[in-house]
Amino acid sequence: MHIWLNKVMGMEKGNKRVINAWAFYDWANSIYPLVISTTIFPIFYEKVTSKIGTGPKHDLVQFWGLDVKNTALYSFVVAASILMVSILSPILSGVADYSGSKKGFLKFFCYLGAIATGTLYFFNPEELEWSMLSIFFGSLGFWNSLVFYNAYLPEIAEPKDHDRVSAKGFSMGYIGATSLLIVCLVFMNGGIGPENLRFLDAEHVFLISGLWWIGFSQITYRRLPSPKSYNKVTREILGNGFKELKQVWQIIKSHTKLKRFLYSFFMYSMGVQTIMLMAVLFAKKEVFDDDNTGGLIIAVLIIQFIAILGAYLFSYLSKKIGNIRTLIIAVSIWIFVCCYAFFFVHSPSTFYFLAAIVGLVMGGTQSLSRSTYSKFLPETNDTASFFSFFDITEKIGIVIGMVIFGLVESTSGDIRTSVLALIVFFVIGIILLFRVPRNTEEVIETGKQ
Predict the structure, then answer these.
(1) Beta-carbon neighbour count of residue 130 at 10 Å?
(2) How far is CA 431 from CA 185, 392, 420, 424, in A?
(3) Residue 1 lies in a domain
(4) Which residue from 88, 117, 232, 347 has the highest number of Cβ atoms inside 10 Å of its Cβ?
């Protein structure tokens, strides 16, 4: 029955062309977390806002009449965009499941994010209230598109292949985004370094990134099938997402393994995502000055290349000892990352070592979390609703993590203290992972509840 249904809906599992097309969206959209969230924009943002900033570190900026630390402002704006994602996801996933428009929503938010990324070309630190809208909508487009992208995973691959396919997507993302970053750096600097600008400024990179995102996503759209549905969307249907979300939660509560895994994921993902979003701003403030921007970019490249290895390494390790035990190891390493950053990272060499550790564990944690959740799901055709719940869990965690990070820095005046505070999330996450039933490993191998 399920095989017949999958074929009717154009979702034959295991089709290599479809899987490759799905994974290629990672290639297309990963420029946002790397170029915009992690590398070029944070460096650009910290530099241009420091020029107009006040205070001992020139990092206090005016935002709607308030004095706010530039890094705290960035964390608050990103948190606000992700909060909006959490509100929109249940509404849109309900419409997508009912109308068969999952692919259409994936396209819409892809284009929203890409266009917003391109508008960063006009970023003006003198008008932060308007300029930060580009970051808000770019983040909104990126994260909301992932809701519908991730929902395809259980529809295109068998449970036994979820780890491998998920790792393939993340790896293609790292390769694609890193390739674009290197090319941009060569044309910006004549190499990796801050001197001798050649053909591109940071603003041009923002335009190129938006075009890259839209252009390569067409490969995904051409091959990824659309479920056929003739259901008409009415006003009542707009509330179905929240109803489905409630139904999903009722189902999740009856599956102990799935429920306890989500509790843990909620906690440790707060720390993981916050570190990934704020790492470069931390390094720019605490380690690298304006004369050593090239060194900071080298560290980011280290993270990306090692992340490719990490995604496959943790996928291999999960086959040997199981997903949950592997995640416990990964989260433990994140605790080490926070401690090491707080006590020892004061020079480029120490940050390079930290970057290598982050790269190793970053890809594995993200890929394994997505595939573990996918494996634990009960048999269902409403994957968009289940992954909407998963994404909302992650996004609410990011909102909390980013707000706490910003508040701790604002009150303590020290961004290092914010990094150390993230340990709490990881410790609770590990404790909750240990509470996932032992027979989980059998479920992971078979993909059945």
Answers:
(1) 11
(2) 42, 22, 18, 11
(3) no
(4) 117
Separation between Cα atoms, residue 252 and residue 382, nearest integer Å: 14
- Distance, in Å, from the CA atom of 239 to the CA atom of 410, rounded to the nearest integer, reads 38
Nearest residue to 418 via CA among 338, 299, 303: 338
* pLDDT above 80 (res 385): no
- Contact status, residue 279 vs residue 335, Cβ threshold 8 Å: no
For residues 74 and 45, the answer to whether their CB atoms sit within 8 Å is yes
Domains contained in the chain, number: 1
The dihedral region occupied by 61, where left means phi > 0, alpha psi between -120 and 50, and beta the remainder, is beta
Instruction: Measure CA 280 to chain center.
Output: 15
Residue 344 counted as domain residue: yes
Rounded Cα distance, 379 and 375, in Å: 10
In a domain, 128, yes or no: yes
317 Cβ partners below 8 Å, 6+ apart?
326, 329, 364
Residues in contact with 41: Cβ distance below 8 Å, sequence separation at least 6, in sequence order:
35, 120, 135, 202, 206
pLDDT digits (tens, 9 = 90+) for 225-242: 776 555 555 566 666 667
- Residues contacting residue 409 through CB under 8 Å, at least 6 positions apart: 69, 71, 72, 415, 417, 418
Taking only the tens place, the pLDDT of each residue in 15-55 is: 888 888 888 899 999 889 888 887 888 888 888 888 887 87
Domain that holds residue 429: 11-225+240-446
Longest dimension (CA), the chain: 67
Is the residue at 2 inside a domain?
A: no
